[in-house]
What does this fold into?
Amino acid sequence: MSNFTKEEVQYYANFARIDMPDAEAQKFADRLDTLLEFTDRLKEIDTTNVAQMTHPLTITNVLREDKPADILDRDDMLKSVEDHEDGMIKVPNILD
Amino acid sequence: MAVNKTASELQSLLHSRELSVKELTEETLKTIKETDGPIQAFLTVTETEALQAADQLDSLPDAERGLLFGMPIGIKDNIITKGIRTTCASKMLENFVPVYEGTVTERVKDSGMVIVGKLNMDEFAMGSTTEHSAFQKTHNPWDLDRVPGGSSGGSAAAVAAGQVLYSLGSDTGGSVRQPAAFCGVVGMKPTYGRVSRSGLVAFGSSLDQIGPITKTVEDNAMLLSAIAGSDYRDASASEKAVPDYRSALTGDIKGLKIAVPARYLGEGVQPEVRDAVKTAIGVLESLGAHVDEIDLSYSRYSAPTYYVISSAEASSNLARFDGIRYGYHPADAKNLNEIYLRSRAEGFGDEVKKRVLYGTYALSAGHHEDLYERAQKVRSLIAQDFQDVFRDYDVIVGPTSATNAYKLGETIKDPLTLYANDLLTTPMNLAGIPAISVPCGFAEGLPVGLQIIANHFEEPLLYKVAHAYEQATEFHKQTPPAREGN
It folds into this structure.
């Protein structure tokens, strides 16, 4: 099995958008190693011709008309937003 | 004191109007104030809202007063409550106030119950001791140096300590059943799809179910009847009619066919736990059940399968916490990416980060097939194992947890114990089947839970067996020392 390097942890942390300084990355590398070693046991099983189970129950799609309902109040929702203006959420510039 | 009465005693007092909902609510709030210092079950006590609701309920005519009318209830803090702070025990949501109501809390209110507060848990329900809460450690009412279990530790401790008779928890890999066992109360994980997940902050969407925690099996059955059923806001909530679970409590289990997997009482299970469960199985036999030992071979892979699938789903579900629309927002971020990176680095605790990282890895190109897809295939095998057993047997029985409650701060290092614990609770979530934990004795003075497992939508059978067992024993009448003198 592979061992996580600090750089690999930072690579995946970037996908997950979690800031990961070097010291933290080393700590998580060790913890992820333990998890990976544990889950590596799944390779003992022959899964040829076994279907993936994507959901615990076989249920069919539930369809309904696309009608607005249960409308949430904009002012209520904006109460939890740190920075907003004219009913819109403000974020820093995304282009330099 | 009203809170030391049973639910049915309180009900008759409320219905005869010898006791008002307001009086009961006030008394409950007082009890929480007096007892929660050493227990730390509550993250938020909703005094104002509860008293307001009580006032309104007191003006309801008799005809509109149902079976749960006026009963105080605590809600795990990953179930949203409109206008009431919902934190998931995470710094990420420390100041989050939901703008709509969760389906279960709506149904709880519609049935006349009074929400008295939000209960502590492991952050985002990731953990089994409630020590991963960002805010406080909950103590087990039976021994304050022990954990209440988790992740619904606050929900189980509050019921055990007599603060409330009813609470709601959520169970992704054992998070209702294991704390119920550790705290000596009744905890039910319903069939996947039995209870709407709308309003439950998602951890593992194909595994999560909300379940009731109560002192008795009858109370549990009544609460599930109130919250179960289809919901247009959750397409995975089943359309199947909800039975009156209380009518299943006949006490008659003659001829019931019980399977006991050898592994459930094998290596890693504490001897006192094994003895208590074996004695409980003897009680079921004396009530007319037939017991056989069986093998559930793929269940031994349930823990690794669970970690892959639950972490993968968590990494996707927790992507919504971006520090922008709600939740923790870092000060002075220079650009958008820095808001994302810092809100998640500063808002999430280590256990959450570890699982998000592992899930991201398991879903990434290059590892997806070997980890995630493989785990989904093993999940099929685990689920099939259960179906094979349920062709010949009505229920499966075993311990809920391999040991009694751990000491606070204790790290369980024995791999056999860790393995046995995961083996006992995660397979049911993977298979989507229901399971209940009922008190069945003590190990070194701490409660032990008997777990009863059945096929999809067989909750009536689980309640029937659990109730028959409960009525034949006295364990449910025992209360923890922390309550004495209150």
User: Anything to note?
Assistant: DSSP finds three helices and two strands in chain A. Chain A touches chain B through 51 residues (CB under 8 Å). The beta strands of chain A are 84-85, 88-89.
